[in-house]
């Protein structure tokens, strides 16, 4: 999946229905399903770009014309391109007119409700955005993260930034009921296919989404109520971080990359309130920090975590917490740059960066996991009087659309996880508003209790581990969990043409985007081979290539033994027959940028019925039990002291009078909590539950149970 940013689709002008049966297309705006010629180089008057439709699938080639040319103070060229003819109007322009259908023969029909007037692009808008790139965004991003390399080392002009503006074909393009759209994206494939550093921006509603105060700009409609100030400026700062990360650490997991991308917009001074934080507050319980799901809530979680780290590390080098557009090589700026550059992935990479930060500065910043625990409290309390549990740059109620976690649980989730009075076993076990006791990795559940009793304790039991179990024995092979990677598992047993290779496999692979391949070495070249299910004899590999990630054919994708995202994967026996002239065999798990599913497991491999031997070089496949070690954290959050007169183990108190009682382990029995200080109509306390897993796998859900029981003393 390409790395994209989603925004809520809010029309700034009224839409009208369009009944389009055909489209007269100007000659210059035509496109081709096949490459019509060389793509050109950055800065050329016209370039030819392969456009992928993320909803309907398929790729077509679209000519773009240069609408802006500039350069940064350090001389990096910056270009903005639009579909040929776009600045002369919308209707009839391919890749801009919302009625454009690049494949009229498929079942996907553009939404008829979109108004071409919402996609008008003007030279003044393009010049404004180009100047913002040249004068600020590129410099701020490169200073805070790292340099932009030449996309094609043989082409000096490729050391530049190309921004494409067109009407992106996504779910919203075809389905009128979808209220989010792809505001922009970075696709690493542009570097390989074009030899250019390319960022894409959507063409929707530039009249109200470009500029600090769009309603006062020449292109504005004069109505501030329609404005989404600097939305596209923030999107391009976000996507530029992805481009830079592609050069620095292309295998980094999406939650880190996406979180830092939102931080890039934040460090450029753009408004980062709105949908990302709103969705995180509302869908907090459904969101894992570290297992990327691609929803707006995932952006909100990862951004707020890294924004919290930036603030806790000191923000700017002078200790101020409002971004100043400069890089200070100290405090939060330094920590963010170290996280960006760290080659280890996910929480391990964040921890390595914190270790390097502490070694360099002597700051003694808390561990990545401790910061996660404090971030979990912060996302609930967000107390402006607290130096520990506050996001200084955001007020999570007003700046998240009026939603807080409490309001979301009460109004959106119908009083979910809110309890009054004592909770004896029968009442607790049948509570209709009690959420399912399943924890996402590095997720957070919040449940609040009012008047549960004057003295209570918690009893908690969490699953010690979760597992994708081997088909047989103690271990199996796993293709790993990394973006933009091709991991290899080698067959060491000798094979030849005509040999039958059987293997048992469990796979949950992002359908249509990521693939598993079985490859044979024939005449010195690796070629993919068809794969069949032994039980049914059906071919389970596919030659379909909706997003250009299965160009070799014979790819395995989706869920083993069922429908993708409906059925649970199961172990099945697959078979390949070695082609004539083959001398070797391997399994290759290929992932693109962004979203990942659990992946690909293989076990019990045979050649012509005899047990076979396999191996994998370091950094590729992992021989594992498939177990995830669960590490539970239970936090009791209160605005007063629940253990008066005692400095209790695990008690953390901030400078605003908030008390948090932190417990860790798989089986927890807490000490007595006295609720006298908060009894009455107020919430006595909130229980927060999180699983911080470790081990080879850290992406599985896990179950838990707990209860709040009365105590005598």
TrEMBL record:
Comp. bias intervals (Polar residues): 540-554
Domain of life (superkingdom): Bacteria
Signal peptide bounds: 1-19
Region (Disordered): 540-560
InterPro entries noted in UniProt: TAT_signal (IPR006311)
Keyword Signal: yes
Keywords of the record: Signal
Record's protein name: Peptidase M6-like domain-containing protein
Phylogenetic classification of the source organism: Bacteria, Bacillati, Actinomycetota, Actinomycetes, Micrococcales
């Amino acid at each position: 999946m390409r790395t994209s940013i989603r925004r809520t689709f809010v029309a700034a002008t009224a839409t009208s229905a369009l009944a389009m049966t055909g489209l007269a297309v100007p000659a210059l705006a035509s496109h081709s399903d096949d490459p019509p010629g060389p793509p050109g180089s950055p800065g050329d008057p016209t370039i030819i770009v392969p456009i992928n439709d993320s909803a309907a699938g398929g790729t077509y080639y679209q000519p773009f014309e240069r609408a802006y040319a500039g350069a940064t103070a350090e001389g990096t060229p910056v270009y903005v391109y639009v579909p040929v003819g776009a600045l002369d109007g919308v209707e009839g322009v391919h890749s801009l007119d919302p009625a454009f259908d690049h494949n009229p023969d498929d079942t996907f029909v553009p939404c008829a409700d979109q108004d071409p007037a919402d996609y008008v692009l003007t030279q003044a808008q393009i010049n404004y955005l180009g100047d913002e790139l040249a004068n600020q965004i590129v410099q701020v991003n490169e200073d805070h993260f790292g340099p932009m390399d030449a996309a094609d080392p043989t082409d000096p002009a490729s050391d530049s930034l190309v921004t494409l503006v067109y009407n992106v074909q996504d779910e919203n393009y075809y389905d009128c009921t979808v209220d989010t759209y792809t505001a922009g994206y970075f696709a690493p494939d542009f570097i390989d296919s074009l030899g250019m550093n390319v960022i894409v921006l959507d063409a929707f509603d530039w009249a109200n989404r470009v500029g600090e105060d769009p309603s006062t700009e020449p292109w504005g409609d004069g109505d501030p109520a329609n404005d989404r100030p600097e939305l596209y400026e923030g999107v391009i700062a976000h996507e530029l971080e992805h481009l830079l990360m592609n050069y620095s650490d292309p295998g980094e997991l999406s939650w880190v990359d996406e979180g830092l991308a939102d931080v890039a917009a934040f460090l450029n001074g753009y408004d980062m309130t709105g949908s990302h934080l709103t969705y995180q507050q509302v869908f907090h319980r459904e969101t894992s920090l570290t297992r990327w799901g691609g929803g707006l809530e995932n952006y909100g979680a990862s951004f707020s975590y890294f924004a919290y780290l930036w603030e806790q590390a000191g923000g700017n080098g002078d200790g101020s917490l409002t971004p100043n557009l400069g890089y200070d090589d100290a405090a939060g700026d330094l920590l963010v740059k170290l996280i960006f550059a760290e080659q280890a992935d996910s929480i391990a990479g964040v921890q390595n960066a914190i270790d390097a930060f502490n070694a360099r500065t002597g700051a003694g910043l808390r561990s990545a996991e401790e910061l996660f625990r404090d971030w979990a409290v912060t996302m609930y309390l967000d107390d402006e009087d607290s130096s520990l549990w506050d996001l200084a740059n955001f007020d999570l109620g007003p700046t998240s659309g009026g939603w807080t976690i409490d309001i979301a649980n009460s109004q959106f989730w119908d009083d979910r996880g809110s309890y009054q009075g004592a909770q004896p076993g029968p009442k607790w076990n049948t509570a209709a508003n009690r959420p399912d006791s399943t924890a996402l990795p590095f997720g957070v559940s919040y449940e609040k209790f009012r008047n549960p009793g004057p003295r209570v304790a918690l009893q908690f039991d969490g699953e010690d581990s979760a597992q994708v179990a081997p088909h047989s024995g103690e271990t199996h092979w796993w293709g790993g969990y990394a973006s933009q990677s091709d991991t290899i598992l080698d067959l060491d047993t000798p094979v030849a043409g005509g040999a039958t290779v059987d293997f048992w496999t469990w796979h949950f692979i992002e359908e249509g985007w990521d693939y598993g391949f079985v490859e044979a070495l024939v005449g010195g070249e690796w070629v993919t081979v068809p794969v069949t299910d032994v039980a049914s004899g059906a071919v389970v590999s596919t030659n379909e290539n909706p997003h250009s990630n299965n160009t070799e054919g014979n790819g395995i994708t989706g869920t083993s033994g069922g429908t993708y995202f409906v059925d649970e994967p199961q172990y099945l026996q697959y078979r390949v027959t070695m082609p004539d002239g083959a001398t070797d065999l391997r399994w290759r798990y290929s992932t693109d940028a962004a979203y990942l599913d659990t992946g690909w497991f293989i076990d019990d491999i045979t050649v012509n019925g005899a047990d076979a031997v396999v191996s994998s070089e370091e950094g590729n496949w992992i021989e594992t039990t498939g177990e995830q070690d669960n590490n539970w954290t239970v936090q009791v959050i209160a605005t007063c002291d629940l253990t008066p007169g005692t400095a209790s183990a695990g008690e953390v108190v901030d400078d605003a009078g908030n008390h948090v009682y932190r417990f860790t382990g798989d089986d927890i029995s807490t000490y007595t909590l006295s609720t006298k200080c908060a009894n009455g109509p107020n919430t006595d306390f909130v229980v927060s539950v999180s699983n911080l897993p470790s081990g080879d796998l850290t992406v599985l859900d896990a179950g838990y149970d707990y209860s709040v029981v009365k105590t005598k003393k």
